[in-house]
Amino acid sequence: MKRVLILIKGLGRGGAEQLLASAAPHLDHDRFRYEVAYLLPAKDALAAELARRGMAVTCLGGDGGRGWLRRLRELVRERRIDLVHAHLPYAAIGARVALWGRDRPRLVYTEHNVWESYKPPTYWANLATFARNDHVFCVSEQVRSSIRYPLPLRWRRLPPTETLYHGLDPAALGPPAPDGVREELGVGPAAPLVGTVANFRAEKAHGDLLRAAALVRRSVPDVRFVLVGQGPLEGQVRREAERLGLGETVIFAGFREDVPRVAAALDVFALSSRHEGLSIALMEAMALGRPPVVTSVGGLPELVTHDRHGLLVPPGDPGALATGIVTVLEDPALRERLGQAARRRAADFDIRAAIGRMEDVYGELLA
Predict the structure, then answer these.
(1) DSSP code per residue over 311-340
(2) Which helix (H) or strand (E) holds 250?
(3) 192/311 Cα distance (integer angstroms)
(4) How much is the CA Rg of the chain, to the nearest whole Å?
(5) What is the count of structural domains for the chain?
(6) CA-CA distance, 268 to 194, in Å (whole number)?
(7) 258 and 133 share a domain?
(8) How far, in Å, CA of 139 to CA of 154, rounded?
(9) CATH number, position 315
């Protein structure tokens, strides 16, 4: 049986990491023996869940340096790994460097973000080693189209690259059960509730959402915004909310195990991202019939058609975001129409189809 190692920087609850957990129940363990390796000991929220699915889980990090590259080589040799599937640039770049050479395993990579969203060191290291991939999956067409070498480097090999929408696990999402969520959040039963699920990172542009919230409140005074997530910029976002006088309007919900339950309680799901691959949180909200108002960046327009499944607004424009949110909140018929269409659209994205395609590629590479 061929052995596959899934490699990622951390196993916290980000979008890429959650995809691994959603995929785990549907992997073909009769065809491949799967293992998982990650680098950051503190980011281990999903490690136990993956282990329960029968996969060996190894943390390669711990010293804050490059020792994980040596440990990766040792793991691949000791476990006789045939194929490494890396997610996100840091882990992938290391794998391409550490595992290159004679008798190396096959290398598959999933690109989760548009290339222009990366900081220069990550961008150039990813580009410099990219040709060592044997196959690349991209989470959206916009991500795929962003992969291009600068003109002087167009001679370099571009590995086979395809768009593969990963999608949801319908069984894991389950029926919505929002009862009690508003009470937990301190929100009245009649207050319009807008929410987002996004870790506090620069590309998510929470500041734009806060400025939109201040504008929405002028038209809908009793509106409440709930922000689900955590991350390095949380303190900065909290200070901005205070500066804007949004203490009564914005609720910082932190990390939640029951994100679908919270999403099911929303009247509108909003995303203010300035860069995005394809948001799984958005997909979940749509599957629950929540009408989205999101920025037209990355792969989001591939999921949401404007005025059909939700509203698209320009990135970096809090006024447009606020207008979209108010439009949906003040029109119950529109909210119902968009929510129902969003639910139908989300059903087109099933993670089981994506896993089938990935395993077909594994088989082709290992034949």
Answers:
(1) EEE-TT-HHHHHHHHHHHHT-HHHHHHHHH
(2) strand 250-254
(3) 17
(4) 21
(5) 2
(6) 5
(7) no
(8) 23
(9) 3.40.50.2000
Question: How far, in Å, CA of 276 to CA of 295, rounded?
Answer: 9
Judgement on whether residues 131 and 218 belong to the same structural domain of the protein: no
What domain range includes position 342? 172-346
Asked whether residue 162 falls in the same domain as residue 192, the answer is no
Same domain, residue pair 354 and 305: no
Is 292 found in the same domain as 161? no
In this structure, are 152 and 209 located in the same domain?
Answer: no
Sheet bearing 224-228, strands edge to edge? 250-254, 224-228, 193-197, 268-271, 292-295, 311-313
Q: What is the DSSP letter of 291?
A: P
185 and 157 co-located in one domain: no
Q: Do 341 and 256 belong to one domain?
A: yes
The answer on pLDDT for 324 being more than 70 is: yes
**Cα-based distances in Å from 267 to 111, 123, 157:** 32, 38, 48
**Per-residue pLDDT averaged across 74-103, rounded?**
94
Each residue's pLDDT tens digit, 120-178 = 999 999 999 999 999 999 999 999 999 999 988 888 889 999 999 988 887 766 666 66
End-to-end, the C-alpha distance of the chain in Å comes to 12
282 within 8 A of 260, measured Cβ to Cβ: no
Read off the tokens for 171.
């069984």
